[in-house]
Amino acid sequence: xxxxxxxxxxxxxxxxxxxxxxxxxxxxxxxxxxxxxxxxxxxxxxxxxxxxxxxxxxxxxxxxxxxxxxxxxxxxxxxxxxxxxxxxxxxxxxxxxxxxxxxxxxxxxxxxxxxxxxxxxxxxxxxxxxxxxxxxxxxxxxxxxxxxxxxxxxxxxxxxxxxxxxxxxxxxxxxxxxxxxxxxxxxxxxxxxxxxxxxxxxxxxxxxxxxxxxxxxxxxxxxxxxxxxxxxxxxxxxxxxxxxxxxxxxxxxxxxxxxxxxxxxxxxxxxxxxxxxxxxxxxxxxxxxxxxxxxxxxxxxxxxxxxxx
Length: 309
Description:
The protein is of the alpha+beta class and 309 residues long.
């Protein structure tokens, strides 16, 4: 049980990192209006639907042996703000296996509750002061990434997708900006995870210490003046995060176990993510399944109970 809680904590830490990162030349007056209107719309959206697709390759090396695996995932989500309520379903494929997940989060009695279905089983996690954590981390708005200042964007040629032309800009989030956002996340983990937060905070800080800049390409819909799609080149960022994460885990594991982990390396290549937005401000509401609501609670913050196991 102790290992399960640690794993869930690690996954929550990684999800916060990714969630915080992505929330996520000459221009004519009309293009500038479309850009600023679209960014303002997504920053202030009360709700939206999204589909995220990730693909790439991963090579694991240890003791002179290596294994290459293709990786792909598709995540579909609906999110509402004030109060936060979200539904996410996903399929991840790697090494010939496929894993499906389904999760929900909503506010209940001043706490946020996460329901997760994995391997056919539902679990329930009650988080701490997530409002405070989200506010401190900047995750309540992606405004810290997508600013309305047009000078931050570089215009590219239009792109046709499914017979429709989209306005295209490039935008870069600096490594310093990312670390600043992550500082809010790490300082807030105590509010979310209670006694489990110490190692997770250290791991999160280590993961982003050498992260560098993150470029993205944004497609804007001229007709609706909204963001249609954001593309992320993830290879360099993921390799830096993986390297830092493995070094941190090796240190946490202790001297004896760390020696074995020091031989393990993970490299990714051709890693890209594409997030497509729709129904901004008009997403359909959803109900959490009854079997999820009746799931057994997993206590991430009970440090005393954990120490007994």
